[in-house]
Structures are given as C-alpha cells and as structure tokens.
Amino acid sequence: MRSSSLITPRALGMIAALAFAPLAASGQTFLIDFNTTATSGGYPGGAAAWNAYAAPANVTGTIKDSTGAASTISIGLSATGVGTIGPSDSTQGTQIDANVGGPSWLTTGPGYTDTQAGDYFFSSNEGSGDDALIVTFSGLTPGAIVSVDLWMGRISGQGGDGRFTYSLNGGTTTAGFNVLEKNGAAAGDIWAGTNTKDTTFRAFDDGRNLGRYMSITGLTVDSGGNLIITAADAPGSSYTGIAAIQLTVSNIPEPTTYAALLGVGALGLCAMRRRR
C-alpha cells in the first residue's frame, strides 16, 4: 500500500528547483553630484534619484539609491595637504552640451550643462602636487560587489590633473581606475594598458576636451565595509577634483541563506524518494 503524503510531486519539484537555483544578487545604484545642484528636470531620473551636495561641508551622512530609497551606506569628504576643499565656479566648470556627449547616467536631461556634469569639488589650489580630495563610502556589506564610475570636467587646459585611486582596505593598498571614452568604450592611445594610478589623468588634455570618464567594476568589499576614492594632485598641477560619481552595489546572498535552501531541497528529495 502506497503511503499518503501532503506534499504532491509538483510541490516537491518546485521546492527542489527553488533550493538549487542560483540566487540573484540584489543591486542598488547611487548617484552623487558635487557642487551646484541641478534643477529637478536636469538630473537623469529626476532630482530624487541623486544625492546632490552644494557645498563640501554637506557631504556627510547616509545616501539614498537612485529610486529614492534610504540606505545604510554613508558618504564622507575630506582633504589632505593644505586641507581645504573648493567648489568650482562657472568659469572653471566644463560647459557640457549635447554635441560633447557623455555617459547616459550623467549627461541626459535639459539642465545638465553646468551642473552635475560641468562643476566639481577640487583639492586646494594653494600648493602644487601636495593635496588630495578623498571620498569615503562606509557601511557597505562585506562580500558585496561594487562598481564605480567617476566624471571630471575642465574647460581650460593645465588644470585638474591628478592621480585617481581607490582602496577597499582603508588605504593600505590602492589601485587606479580605467579611463573610458565618453560613450563607455575603453580609451586607447596613452590609456591603453594603463590606469589613473600609474598615469596622470588630465580632464582637458590628451585630445578629449570638456571632460573625462573613469570606471572600475567587479570589486569585492572586504570585512571593513569601506570604499575610499582619492583624487590626488599630479606633480605640476595645483589641484584636481571630482564632478560626479555613480556607485553600483550588488549584495551577494549570505552563505547561511544558501545552506537553508539546500536543506529544504534535501528534505524535498528525501520525501520524493519515500513516495517511491
């Protein structure tokens, strides 16, 4: 006589499928604008999608994601060297227009010309090659995968040159960003095979006037839960800066989640065997 069961074969199959299917990472995007804030219509996705800071002193506290949802991730801004941080004015910021182009997360919308794309916070211009602008994201989930896009613009030459680096372990080790064309393609010429730690990034020079695009993808957050981005003056340059940041975070499910689902799947398989 076949034993009865409250779990049907179809239900057992669904349990097993859920248990052994790969879990998708949950992702969030965070958009940061430094200096003069745009009108609500000027931001891609609307003003609610952006964390906009009109003054360096305002860069503190938790940030919201691009849907407007709150997060536990915090941002901070500091400086080394002379120790002051300046906002660019209209004569220093890049006047971006539709003919210049740029990444879609930054340069779409009617009001972006001299707001999120065209102005920035910069390290002190009182010295030469001895200052840095430091952005710190904290509260990231250890094991999460992060990607970072940076934008820096400059309307005239011989300014804003620097070395851009990131660190996941409090600055103990650093690495540079890859330089991209404004459409997101990998940059060639002097940037082929190098990065913004080993080679000086020039916001105006090397044939790409009115702004440059930097990116790094697939970074794994370590146990400290921090990401530090540093823009340091290059030798012979009086300052450098950052105009906008896009941070993408994918939180990978905890191992205990996998273990629990595997346990459910095993129970389901045992029940199926008993029915046979």
Order of helices and strands: HEEEEEEEEEEEEEEEH
Radius of gyration: 23 Å
Beta percentage is: 25-35%
Kindly state the percentage of residues in helix.
10-25%
How many strand units? 15
Overall 3D form: globular
Uncertain stretches: 1-5, 17-25, 89-99, 257-261
Describe, in plain words, how this protein is organized in 3D.
By secondary structure, this protein is mainly beta. The protein is 12% helix and 31% strand. The protein has helices spanning 9-20, 255-275; strands spanning 26-34, 50-53, 62-64, 70-80, 85-87, 121-123, 132-138, 145-152, 162-167, 175-176, 178-180, 212-220, 227-233, 241-242, 244-251. The strands form three sheets. Strands 2-1-15-8-12-11 form a six-stranded mixed sheet, with no helix packed on it. It has a six-stranded antiparallel sheet with strand order 3-4-7-13-9-10, with no helix packed on it. Strands 5-6-14 form a three-stranded antiparallel sheet, with no helix packed on it. The longest helix has 21 residues, at 255-275. The N and C termini lie close together (11 Å). The relative contact order is 0.22. Mean pLDDT is 74; it is low at 1-5, 17-25, 89-99 and 257-261.
Task: Write a brief caption for the model.
By secondary structure, the chain is mainly β.
